[in-house]
Each structure stands twice: as C-alpha cells, then as structure tokens.
Write a structure and sequence with these properties.
Layout (H helix, E strand, L loop, with lengths): L1 H13 L38 E5 L4 H12 L3 E6 L3 H13 L4 E5 L5 H15 L4 E4 L15 H26 L6 E5 L3 H4 L5 H21 L5 E5 L15 H6 L13 H11 L10 E2 L10
Parallel strand pairs: 1-2, 1-4, 2-3, 4-5, 5-6, 6-7
C-alpha cells in the first residue's frame, strides 16, 4: 500500500499542468493553460536600457514576450518580429505600451533574408536607431530515428534557427556600430551541451548558435558590439504544446533538478543583464537558466 501511495505521489508531482497540444508551430500563447508568466509582479525597472531600441525575434510570446516587456520596463522601445500569431503579438504590444514605450510589430518568416533586412530597416526607420538585437525565434520537430528527418525538415529547422541569425546580424551590424554599447543576444539551448536523442537537428542548430556567438563576439569586439547568448532549459512557452504529445506536455520540466519547468520571466532577466551596462565586460559568453542542470558550458 505504501509503495502504491508513493507511486501515485510521484505521478501527481510529475504532472505539472493539464494535458494539451497545438497543431502548428511556433504555437500560440493565447491557447495555453495555464498561461506562461512573462514578468514578475515585483520586477522594478531602473532605466537600464533607457533611450535604446531593440529588435526581438519571436517577440510575440514566451521568452520573447518576456524580453520585450522587461526591455520596455527598463526604458527601451521594442520591435517584435513574429510569424503569424497576430493575437499574441497584439497582446505583447499592449503590454509594452502599458510600460510607456513604443512597440512595432512585424510579421514574416525569419528564414527569408529579404524579410530580415526589411525588419531591421523598419525598426531603424521607426525608432531612429538600433541598439540591441535579440534572436529568439526557433522551431523543433521530434524524430526518434535520424532517417526520419527529411531534407525539408532539416533545411527548415536550420533556416529558422541559425540562418536567420546570420541574416539579421548581417543587416543589423552597420546600425549597431553607430551605437556605443550595442549588443547582440542569441538564444541557444541546454540541448546544445547535452544533446537530445529526439531533437537531433534542433540540437545541432543550437550547438551552431553557441559557436556562432563565440566567433561573432571576437569578430565584432573591436567595433564595440558585444555578442552573448542564453541557453534556456525546459521553459513553459507555446513551442512546447506545439511540439510534444499531450502526455509529455503535462509532465514537461518535471525531470529538471528543480522538479519543474521554468517560466519565461525566469529567462527574461538574463537578456536584460546582457543588454545592459551591467554586462559591459562580457562578450562571447552564455548564461544558463535551466533549472539546475550542470552542463559546464
């Protein structure tokens, strides 16, 4: 009887939320239950980014939304780039404007170079400057066997996750050079360091992002542009129900050392830190909000 009780307790602990799934990536925050937490109620801005302008890909929801709202609370105007989740983007815009800052929404495919160039131009035209580029957009498609990864999936995953960073950085760097203290922040993943047997192509892109971050940081150091990255662990974002089965989503994050999935706001502060003068002596580095998993990266 005691063993059965223990098993029931473990099952209850592992299930963190109602089973749910979505049929299309990158997913919609408006359909999630419970909703992710973008900003702590007690987070007090201190003008760390006052007068600056930032472009954030994947800024409509999840970690990107948290970054957008926190940047606004710290005094920055923000441009959010997203695919086609218009309701989520409008909600993020409302939250940014509630902080008294301007928000530009731009819908399109970050895997398209011309779109990336256009997004940078629109941001500079709207705000008159670009100080911070945050690359947060991503997609992932689980496959148990490597021969199940089609050429189409492989190309799409790399195009969204890493090609987009090249395209955006190429377009952004000429503008960033004009702004002292400018910064690029890329989003990699804990999977870049420990791998993931069911997300081989996704993990490969995240490893590429780590190498790209380190290489670009050295390339741009003399221009005064800092390049760093954040490697989240299991974070409750729309990409999760849009990726995994209902059963996996219900237990998502329960195997982390802290025993739960993280919230977007538990990553957002990393992006504030890396964009601010608090990180003025950091470039080529990666922060790891992952619930306690030690990956020595």
């Amino acid at each position: 009887m005691a063993n059965k009780s223990k098993e029931r307790g473990k099952s209850d602990k592992d299930q963190q939320r109602p089973p749910q799934s979505q049929s299309e990536q990158p997913g919609k925050e408006s359909l999630m239950h419970p909703k992710p937490i973008s900003v702590r109620d007690n987070y007090v801005g201190s003008d760390k980014l006052k007068g600056r302008s930032a472009l954030i890909t994947g800024g409509d929801s999840g970690i990107g939304r948290s970054v957008a709202v926190l940047y606004a609370r710290e005094g920055a105007d923000v441009s959010i780039v997203y695919r086609n989740e218009h309701d989520d983007a409008e909600e993020t815009k409302r939250l940014v404007e509630k902080e008294g800052r301007r928000c530009l929404t731009i819908s399109g495919d970050v895997g398209d170079q011309e779109f990336c160039e256009s997004a940078i131009s629109k941001t500079v035209d709207e705000f008159g400057r670009l100080d911070i580029l945050v690359n947060c957009a991503a997609e992932q498609h689980p496959q148990k066997e490597i021969d199940k990864i089609t050429e189409e999936q492989l190309v799409d995953t790399f195009r969204t996750n890493i090609f987009s960073m090249f395209y955006l950085c190429q377009a952004a760097v000429p503008h960033l050079k004009k702004q002292p203290g400018s910064s690029i922040i890329n989003t990699t993943s804990v999977t870049a360091y420990r791998g993931s047997p069911g997300l081989m192509d996704y993990s490969a892109t995240k490893g590429a992002i780590v190498s790209f971050t380190r290489s670009l940081s050295q390339n741009l150091v003399d221009d005064g542009i800092r390049v760093n990255a954040v490697a989240p662990g299991p974070i409750w974002t729309p990409l999760i129900p849009a990726t995994f089965s209902e059963e996996k989503v219900a237990k998502f994050g329960s195997d982390a050392p802290m025993g739960r999935a993280g919230q977007p706001h538990e990553c957002g502060g990393c992006y504030v830190f890396l964009a601010s003068e608090d990180a003025s002596y950091m470039t080529g580095q990666v922060l790891h909000p992952n619930g306690g998993e030690i990956i020595n990266g």
